[in-house]
Amino acid sequence: MVSIPTWFIYSLVGAIFAAFSTIFAKIGLQGLNSITVTTLRSIIMTIIIFIIFILEVRNINNLFNLSNKDYIFVILSALFGSISWIAFFYALKIGKASNVSIIDRSSFLFVVLLGIIILNEELTIKKVIASILMFIALVLLVI
């Protein structure tokens, strides 16, 4: 029997929920400013994530037991994530949900590239071929 890795299951669930999130956001953006929607979404997400954090970790001190390096990278991730969301919701407001989502999901190509450059991940022929094919697929889907 083939065992499906846990990371794959969580990734797939994340992708499915991201798809619903995009569709619901597109519907919710009608007549609203994209920054307003992004802000409200962020507040609601913060509340939900904090509740899950309290239920899962049960120790708020974990938020304060990080190293300076941990804080720096969490802050950088939040900064870049915020800019990503703002750009995504603005694009979603004025563009087709399917096209915007496809371009947004092209981030995986940048993750492959940055993983190689910053994280010293291995560049394999398989990654090169897959990235080229994915790029071609993205172009074909958007045109």
UniProtKB/TrEMBL annotation:
Pfam family, one: EamA
InterPro entries for this protein: EamA_dom (IPR000620), EmrE-like (IPR037185)
Origin organism lineage: Archaea, Nanobdellota, Candidatus Nanoarchaeia, Nanoarchaeales, Nanopusillaceae
Transmembrane segments: 6-25, 37-55, 71-90, 102-119, 125-142
Name recorded for this polypeptide: EamA family transporter
Signal peptide: none
Keywords: Membrane, Transmembrane, Transmembrane helix
Acetylation recorded as keyword: no
One Gene Ontology term, aspect cellular component: membrane
Cell cycle keyword on record: no
Residue ranges occupied by any EamA domain in the UniProt entry: 7-142
